[in-house]
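Predicting holo structure, pyridoxal-5'-phosphate bound.
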Amino acid sequence: MLRFRSTRGGPDVDFREALFRGLAPDGGLYHPVSTPDLRGLFAAFDPSVSFGELAASAISALLGDELGAQTCGRIAHRAFSFEPTLGEIGAGFEATFLEELYHGPSCAFKDFGAGFLAAAMEELLPDDDRRTVVLTATSGDTGSAVAHAFHRRTGIDVVVLYPKGRVSPLQEKQLTTLGGNIVAVEVAGAFDDCQRMVKEAFLSPRVAGPIRLTSANSINLGRLLPQSLYYLFAWVSLGRRRLRFVVPSGNFGNLTAGLLARSWGMEPTSFVAATNANDVVPSYLSGAPFKPRPSVATHSNAMDVGNPSNFERLRRLYPDRDSMGRVVRGEAVTDEETLAMIRRVHETTGRFVCPHTAVGLVAAGRGAVGEPTVVLATAHAAKFWEIVQDACGEKPPLPPQLEEALTRESRAVPLSCETADLEDLLLDRYA
Ligand SMILES: *Cc1c(COP(=O)(O)O)cnc(C)c1O
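Done. Tokens:
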């Protein structure tokens, strides 16, 4: 049975415990203790396998001993109402495929992690009287993926805190128009205040008695594991040949998920960790000490992370620089290169790519050109239309999900930045 342990040590736990805890009690991140060998399973897949079918089999192979094959199948089925798509870019990008991961409800790859997390929690919820509330703070994108993933799930409510006036109008619409079991809270403060209030509420004995608070944090194992599935899907779809994956990275959860898939037998594959100016991992890979620093703002703002939390997991997989460097190459990309790539792709192919995807495409163009390469397209260009329009002079069309959000009415609960007020809100609504 696959067990999990904090990156900082301590006892092994099962998937269910890691799922509901999120962060380990010692502050570390849950990580698989053993390395399952899934080569037999992978060899049985036909290249025409659907994403849903592959997801259900792989989840069963990983978690079936603990949860049973039927439960795994149900979770996989309910997690993903959308699929990745894979196609060659063409026009001067030799042997380069884009894997589009933005066809879910919030139009970004985080829908895969959040969708699986929500489905797994819904399925594995303890059977008692306490209400389960997912409490999360967002600076924009993560909250939207989480809110959409949990919308209309049974037995779980979601409270999302966001800083008043500091998320984009489109992001605000995505957060505040769902209603039902999703409550958007507009905090009179900054993102840091939202994060502090969430942390303090988790420690509050007043709240913990009557309400089961849980987090949908990006470090949750329930968000990490499902991200491995789209790597496998690309590799199987392309005939299980040698592949290079280029991963636009910020917190490095996405890259970690790819490396986990590799450890289970997805070989031969190599990886490029593509970052913007927040390049602590590429610097480490090129010989500098690993040195977190404050993030700087860039055009690919979902990757503006100065202290990537998943580095702890990367170190579990590859304890030293040499072993990591044999599999992962680091590439840092400037804002100018990012804009130029958005323009180039639009000029040569007519397609729009988001700034994060553009960072990946720039990195893909350096070294090992000609080797079959899959660049992960992490968000829909329309989510970042201002930058895309600046780069190529045209506004990318909105996908139906975003178009629809704009027509709905916003509803948010205003709140001060005092944790006591958040506690009152939680107790009023859910206790
Ligand atoms: C979150 C995000 C990333 C970075 O992913 P990590 O797993 O944090 O490395 C890249 N692109 C987009 C659009 C994102 O939302």
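Residues 97 and 374 are 5 Å apart (CA to CA).
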